[in-house]
């Protein structure tokens, strides 16, 4: 008990120091402010989706705004501090649970955690800086993996549905629900999703809730185009828009890339019977796809790749040289794509070449190879 108390105190001290540094460097935790503002609007059944919010428009389903109402009741500084602590705790849980669920683990837990934290530091660091919720999505998904492993498909489906309300791109996990937990999970998912879509009608009324859902679709679609040209967007859509300019040709090429990558991932899922516990790789692979196939795939969304990186580190020593080189280059082009690492010339050169997109594709490739070799 005393040891646990000391660990908690050390954790809180580190979090307090990190938060102090964050507040010294930045005026606010921008994405959390978006969630908190949505919570304040949901509390009085006001419009959630407003064009005047500009870049910081709320882009998530209405139900999640209601979950953020308690933070709207608190002063901004207090709410931000509490959210930061929660985010730090979720990052630690996400990494720890990723290790715990790893099938047929080869390396020591401490080694895996340390190397994985180093290899993904950029992404979980940005997650904390922005006050994002990708790790919350990841935790719900890992909960679904654990539920599937305990033969509880209904819970697995409901947890994936909950993840969709945190971030709609959790829909990418539907193929896994179908081939893994099965039909029961799909039915549970559909039921939970339907309930979540209808619940805001209690506050907005049936017509108001329908309008809110229509505004959500409109808001997501109208903000996609301008975001394609930002350096932090690493999606296929952004890669081709930056290469060829926004237009039908770039959109078509992005669609082809997404389709090819998706088919490769589905083929890997189809080979799941080659291994005893396939769910971990299936889910890890689909999560890595998210920033590539989502048109608003910001670089920090690669924090969802933590389970994949954990798996790749664990299998690293037994792989051929070409695989090892590809994995190292993938990490170099994603996590270490930092101005301070490459300096001005190389950083701008790699950024203009879409190195982070290519690095994410390389991560997908090395994960798929593990399945082809029946190693996960």
Short structural summary:
With 376 residues, this protein is an all-alpha fold.
Question: What this model shows, in words?
Answer:
- By secondary structure, this protein is an all-alpha fold.
- Helices cover 74% and strands 0% of the residues.
- The chain is globular, with a radius of gyration of 21 Å.
- The two termini are 37 Å apart.
Write the layout of secondary structure elements.
Elements: H1 2-25, H2 30-43, H3 62-67, H4 69-72, H5 76-101, H6 109-119, H7 121-130, H8 134-149, H9 153-166, H10 174-179, H11 183-198, H12 201-227, H13 236-244, H14 248-270, H15 279-293, H16 306-315, H17 321-334, H18 339-352, H19 355-372
Helix pairs in contact: 1-5, 5-6, 5-7, 5-8, 6-16, 8-9, 8-15, 9-11, 13-14, 14-15, 14-19, 15-16, 15-19, 16-19, 17-19
Query: Overall pLDDT, averaged?
Result: 89
Distance between the termini: 37 Å
Secondary structure class reads mainly alpha
Task: Tell me the number of strands.
Answer: 0
Helix amount? over 70%
One letter per element, helices H and strands E, the order comes to: HHHHHHHHHHHHHHHHHHH
Shape: globular
Query: Would you identify the regions where 5 or more consecutive residues have pLDDT less than 50?
Result: none
Count of alpha and pi helical runs: 19
Largest sheet: none
- Alpha carbon gyration radius: 21 Å
What share of residues are in beta strands? Answer: under 5%
């Amino acid at each position: 008990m005393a040891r646990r108390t000391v660990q908690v105190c050390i954790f809180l001290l580190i979090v307090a120091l990190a938060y102090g540094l964050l507040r010294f460097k930045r005026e606010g935790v921008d994405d959390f402010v978006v969630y908190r503002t949505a919570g304040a609007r949901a509390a009085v059944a006001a419009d959630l989706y407003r064009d005047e919010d500009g870049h910081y428009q709320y882009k998530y389903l209405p139900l999640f705004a209601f979950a953020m109402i308690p933070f709207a009741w608190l002063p901004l500084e207090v709410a931000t501090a509490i959210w930061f602590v929660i985010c730090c705790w979720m990052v630690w849980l996400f990494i720890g649970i990723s290790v715990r669920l790893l099938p047929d683990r080869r390396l020591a837990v401490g080694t895996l955690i340390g190397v994985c934290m180093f290899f993904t530091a950029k992404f979980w660091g940005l997650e904390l800086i922005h006050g994002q919720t990708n790790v919350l999505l990841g935790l719900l998904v890992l909960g679904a993996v654990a539920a599937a492993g305990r033969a509880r498909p209904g819970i697995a489906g409901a947890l994936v549905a909950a993840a969709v309300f945190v971030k709609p791109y959790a829909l990418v996990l539907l193929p896994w629900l179908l081939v893994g937990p099965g039909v029961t999970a799909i039915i549970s998912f559909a039921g939970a999703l339907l309930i979540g879509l209808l619940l805001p009608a209690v506050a907005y009324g049936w017509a108001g809730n329908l309008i809110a859902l229509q505004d959500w679709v409109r808001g997501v679609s109208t903000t996609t185009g301008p975001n394609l040209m930002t350096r932090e967007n690493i999606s296929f859509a952004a890669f081709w828009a930056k290469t060829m300019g926004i237009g039908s040709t770039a959109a078509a090429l992005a669609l082809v890339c997404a389709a090819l990558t998706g088919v490769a991932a589905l083929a890997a899922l189809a080979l799941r019977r080659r291994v005893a516990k396939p769910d971990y790789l299936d889910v890890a692979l689909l999560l890595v796809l998210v920033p590539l196939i989502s048109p608003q795939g910001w670089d920090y969304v690669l924090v969802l790749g933590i389970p994949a990186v954990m798996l790749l580190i664990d299998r690293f020593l037994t792989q051929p040289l070409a695989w090892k080189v590809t994995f190292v280059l993938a990490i170099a082009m994603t996590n270490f794509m930092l101005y301070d690492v490459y300096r001005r010339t190389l950083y701008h050169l790699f950024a203009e070449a879409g190195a982070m997109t290519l690095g994410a594709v390389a991560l997908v490739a090395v994960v798929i190879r593990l399945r082809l070799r029946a190693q996960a």
